[in-house]
Write the structure tokens for this entry.
Amino acid sequence: MTVPEFDAVIIGSGFGGLCAAVRLKQAGIDNFVILEKDAQFGGTWQVNTYPGCAVDIPSHMYSFSFAPNPNWTRRLASQAELLDYTRAIVRDFGLAPHLRLGTAYEGAQFEEEGGYWRLRTSAGPLTAKCVVSALGAMNRAALPALPGMESFGGPSFHSSRWNHDVDLRGKRVAVIGNGASAIQFVPQIAPIVAQLDVYQRTAQWIVPRHDRAIGPRERSLLARLAPLRLLYRAFNYTIYEANAPLYLYLPRLFRLAHAVGLRHLHRQVADPLLRRQLTPDYTMGCKRVLVMSDYYPALTRANVSLVTSAVAEVRANSIVGADGVERPVDVLIYATGFHVGHALGSIEVRGRGGKRLFEHDQDCYKGCAVAGFPNYFTVTGPNSGLGHNSMIYMIESSVNYVVEAIKAIRAQGLHSVDVKADVQRDFVATVHKKLRGTVWSSGCKSWYLDGRGRNYAVWPGFTFTYRWATRRFDIGNYIVRS
């Protein structure tokens, strides 16, 4: 009988993967590796280095409960500080020996006779009793299929792969997209470019960004007084969690938040035409609510134009809009988001009977397990995302469940655990029933929805209800083979 090399292989070195690694070590499980396709670890905050990149959740919430950081210098941390935090996690918890950098995960096959996984990687095959997928939803850049885009003669890149070798000073720049990354980097590059054209498909709801510096005295107090640090974290959690009813039960009350968004727009944009172009026509919260205070002012600059006409054609040195206007371009930047849904099934993972993971749907039990894929676990998988609070809380909840499952497999010497198909089916049905009537079902098109219009991304409840659902590994809901 083949004995697998590792108790677990973790896929991805972002917050989810690092959290899983720490919790495995704390559980006394040291025989694991972390696969990372890039040359450096850190996930989102290692990859996204565009100007102005930062988090929109308070820093003290965007950190692990078991590794508080009293030294955040801003309420909303920058990419550089967040990356430094992941480095501290790797250093402080001794994760470096477990990292396999520059090793892409290419697929896996469950060996039914032995009860383990054969993994294919760019560095060769591996075997593991369990797989913990912490790929993250936003790891595959989405590029639009624009006519003629391959003929563009100047530099072009996606915002998540920012080309820092390209000097934008004095250049004519076109930005395709106006989502979460664009509203952060547009204000940074607008003052230095000659002309900036921002192509907008859909107006976004944007609210003010309440950021501030955290001074040395405050940092010192938070470092020395653990109760104060816990209180500060709990305060921020409560403030954000209080928004959940707007998303879940009372979407009509979002009209109050509408007023905040519209007031923000009207205060910063005087031109009535530009205001109309920037006013969303869907219910706030249906798409991700964006947080930024200097995006609107950037659009009012003399050298910046908002283009609401679709792109008809990309040429060697210009873009032609559906309005027939040809606009010259030196540099083309795609701020077009990610293939969130496709990322789930982008890698060939074969379970029992050769079934492919997420080939036809994104059904998942508690965001952690999929029927037919024994000993294969996901960290914050389908329907465990949020629109109102910190995903770090959800990651810790998910990881707790996954690690408890791995501990049970090891302690009992089990061949495999596989969530029962009817249990998963009932769970998914309950989730989608709860999603009816929420703000995400109010009719807009968003990345939360799959090709059939089903919301596969969001958890339909308070974050503490997810914590409760994942508090223990409910082995009775699994097919257990000894």
